[in-house]
Amino acid sequence: MLRGIGWALLLIGMAMSVPVSVEAAPIAPERRPGVSSVIPVQDARERCRWLRHDMRRLESRIAYAQPWERPRMERRLRERRREFRHNCRW
Length: 90
Known about the structure:
The protein has about 90 residues and is mainly alpha-helical. It has a domain at about 40-90. It has 3 helices and no strands. It is elongated and about 75 Å long. The protein starts with a helix and ends with a helix.
């Protein structure tokens, strides 16, 4: 019992001796991000191009898919079409 109390007191003493920092700052100095040459529209166009490609791929795969795989693939195709209609028709 005395041994446990001794360890507890030692741990409490060690915790008390550790200085508590008032302000948490990163070790390395922070840098501001550089100016990007990518325009947000380019990202949207890339996403739309990828969605169009993925819809075509899914449509061709559904034509030859096993019957138990079709519902999952059709659901993914509906999600892609919904996203394409919502984001890519400017």
